[in-house]
Amino acid sequence: MGLKGPNGLVVRTDRFEGVPDPDGLADRLRDFALSLPKTYQDEPWGHPVFKVGENRMFASMSVEEDAVHLTVKLTPEEREIAYLLPYVSRAAYLGNWGWITAEIADEESLEAGLEWLRESYWLKAPKHLKSAAVRD
Q1: pTM to 2 decimals?
Q2: Spelled out in words, what is the top-level CATH class assigned to the domain 23-133?
C-alpha cells in the first residue's frame, strides 16, 4: 500500500492508517477543556492555555508535528502513576508544583489526557465549580 512519489519511489502510507493526527487530537482536548464550566482559552506564551475562573490555568497545550504536548496539574498519587507511562514527564518550569507533561499521540494517551484535564480542572477550579469535574 502506498503512493508513488515524484522520484518514482513508492512511499508507504499504510503505517499511518488509524493514527490520529495531532491537530485532531488537539481539537478533542480543546473541545473537552472548553466544555467545562467557566473555562476559556488564552495564549500568553504563543500556544493554547486553558483557564478557569479568574485567570487560573489548569492546562497548557502545544501541537507538534507528531503529537500534542499537554501539561496539567495532578495529585501526588496520580503523578506517581502517570510517571510510569512512557509518554509522561515532569513539566518544565511547573514540575515542582505538581505539573506533568504528556505526549498525546494516540487514543490511549488521549484517553488519559482527557481524564487528566478533568482532574487538573478540579484541582484549579474555584470551590463552587469543582462538582462539574466529578464523574457519576
Answers
A1: 0.82
A2: alpha beta
